[in-house]
Amino acid sequence: MKGVVKTIRGVGGVALRDVPAPAARAGEVVLDVIAGGICGTDLHIVADEFPYWPPVVLGHEILGRVAEVGAGVDEALIGKRVVAEPHAGACGVCYLCRRGWAQLCADKRSPGWGIDGGFAERVRLPAHLLHVIADAVPDDAAVLAEPLAVVCSGYEQAPVEPGDLVVVVGAGPLGLLAALAATAYGAAGVLVVGRHSSQLRLAAAAEHGLAVARSPDEAASWVAARSDRGGADLVVDTTGAASAVAMATALLRRRGRLLALGFGGAETIAVPWDAMLQRAVTVSFAMSSSHTGWLAATELLSSRRIAPEWLVTPFDLAAWSEAFDAVEGRHVIKAVLRP
Ligand SMILES: [Zn+2]
Ligand SMILES: [Zn+2]
């Protein structure tokens, strides 16, 4: 079968190759892949900026149909359309796993970098990581379960409360999903702030009913016009940029919450420490996705309380390089590969 493989260590080294088709071992399933989402992490792997074990098939955002089950796995799963938590290899016995934080286990080897992933015709996964998706959910919405689970896991750390004013910084897939989820969680107002270079994404967001701002000033007036609490209740940052933290601090009310969901790529960034202290800001970092975050995400999708399929642009697996370029150049919001 064909798979997009990171063949060697170093920058680049990605190719569409023939790889052996997987077989399900005990406790595992094999999926016929329907679609695999391209994520910032995949670009970081190609750029040699994220750990991986080559040769490895890329792709950790996987939607598929169960084709085969291994020993001990319920045969009723066969034919079901599923998404999968990426926490393969988590040990189950360390402190983090036992606390329910398997996503942070040091032994974790996710599909797409630790074991073969979903940019292929078939993928083998541990059965306990699967979530069945309701038939009513279009493929292009279901394939967003992983980034949506990251968002929902973040909201476990920094909750959206009914009536909150929420500002999301960054108009990428994570930012737009964070905005849609905040609305579903009962926020009274949600604003997406993006750069001028994100014009296409902001226009699509506005077209789908989200409030958008293109500068810190625009964001400040939007908040000032709506808040009687002295600022936004929650700012979600998906950029990791110093300018975003500065803007978030300026927008937040006292005792506001800042949720950090995005890597900035710099070793250190300057933050307005004293202003954050004066506002008694609560800062939460969320990394990857919790099991309960997956339950929330699949519920939001299956109930159609959020319908994010408009974020997705599909590409054939064979056009993987074009798809990666489209993500890098921000010509699409979310590219997915279909074998
Ligand atoms: Zn991802
Ligand atoms: Zn563990």
From TrEMBL:
Q: Which domain of life is it from?
A: Bacteria
CC cofactor: Zn(2+)
- Which residue ranges does the record assign to the Alcohol dehydrogenase-like N-terminal domain? 26-133
UniProt keywords, alphabetically: Oxidoreductase
Q: Please state every residue range assigned to the domain named Alcohol dehydrogenase-like C-terminal.
A: 173-301
Q: Any coiled-coil ranges, and where?
A: none
SUPFAM superfamilies registered for this protein in UniProt: GroES-like (SSF50129), NAD(P)-binding Rossmann-fold domains (SSF51735)
What PANTHER family does the database record attribute to this sequence?
L-THREONINE 3-DEHYDROGENASE (PTHR43401:SF2)
Name-wise, this protein is Alcohol dehydrogenase catalytic domain-containing protein
